Amino acid sequence: MSAGPAAAPAPYRPALRSGVLVSDVLLHGPATVRLIKDTGRGQSFKVGDKESFLISRMDGTRSLAEIGDEYAGRYGRRLGDAHWQQLLGMLGTRGLLDGSPAAPRPEPAPEPPRTLLRGTLRLVADADATAGRLHRALGFLLHPAWITALLAAVVAMETVLVLHVGELAAAALDLFTRPVPLTAAACLLWLSTALHELAHGVVARHHGGTVAEIGLRWRLPMVIMYCTVDDYLYLPTRRARIATALAGSVTNLLFLLPFSALWLWAPLDAATRDAVAALLFLGTVQALSMLVPLPPLDGYKIAAQFAGATELAASSRAYLRLAVRRDPAAASYPRRARTAYTAYGLGSLLVIGLLAAAAAALVHHLLTAA
């Protein structure tokens, strides 16, 4: 009996290994890139526009021929075998393709020794599990109805505080002459900072992120808590990334809500009322200062997400230097990049100017009111 015709081999449908994360398309100088992270090895790298176009389509549902057709439709040319071999070889060597041998995990860099003056200390063995427990307990607050109500309360509080900013600033200045209430306020502000960090982790966890570390970092006399979200740039949506970055400052302001209620309505003696007023002023400054769009603050991360860029500050400086000198190289930047870098550069200068003007007006008020 003769054998039937041999079945054609199934077309290869490449897929990235589980645990490989790919970011959105991001501006990087005049180019666009994607960030790729191997969570198993803890390493990440950038790929250019064409490579990212191909890699982002390696989901196991498309064959190489289908991906090649999409590439030809986008860029007007087909990839040859040599190009495919180079790309697949690179991904396979790094252990990023499903079915390829996993690349060995590199030896972790030795942690710098802890000293009395500086160091870090992990507080929990499994930071992601801790963030998960906090999310299960408090995640209901991330429901849109709760968010709307809490943000409305924060806006109302800040409106009242702005109307009394002179009184609050004078109380804050006086606080530094009173050691006991100053110590109490410092402890409360430190607690607010710790909650700020945990809020980043809880919101990231809510959106599918992973919390790598929760610990203490000290550079005496400063001791702060930290919460590291390793895959922040790989959260599924821009909205999720902005919410994660914004969570800390919002939590700082929510922390002040009960103290604002005490200041407004409780029958406090004058000394206690002034101490609470100082806490409200310093806590608001603490929260809003984190939203200034300069690295490494949360406001910078939010600005980078709105711009859809990585290394936004450096790219903006490079572009604006070219633009000011009327260098022809500035014309090589695509319109989206020119708009983003110009908006960030001018916006940052405007914010710094407004902050300086507000500080000057506040100092003038305190001096003339004395």
From TrEMBL:
<feature type="transmembrane region" description="Helical">
    <location>
        <begin position="276"/>
        <end position="296"/>
    </location>
</feature>
<feature type="transmembrane region" description="Helical">
    <location>
        <begin position="140"/>
        <end position="163"/>
    </location>
</feature>
<protein>
    <submittedName>
        <fullName>M50 family metallopeptidase</fullName>
    </submittedName>
</protein>
<comment type="similarity">
    <text>Belongs to the peptidase M50B family.</text>
</comment>
<keyword id="KW-1133">Transmembrane helix</keyword>
<feature type="domain" description="Peptidase M50">
    <location>
        <begin position="185"/>
        <end position="262"/>
    </location>
</feature>
<keyword id="KW-0472">Membrane</keyword>
<feature type="transmembrane region" description="Helical">
    <location>
        <begin position="241"/>
        <end position="264"/>
    </location>
</feature>
<keyword id="KW-0812">Transmembrane</keyword>
<dbReference type="Pfam" id="PF02163">
    <property type="entry name" value="Peptidase_M50"/>
</dbReference>
<dbReference type="InterPro" id="IPR008915">
    <property type="entry name" value="Peptidase_M50"/>
</dbReference>
<feature type="transmembrane region" description="Helical">
    <location>
        <begin position="341"/>
        <end position="367"/>
    </location>
</feature>
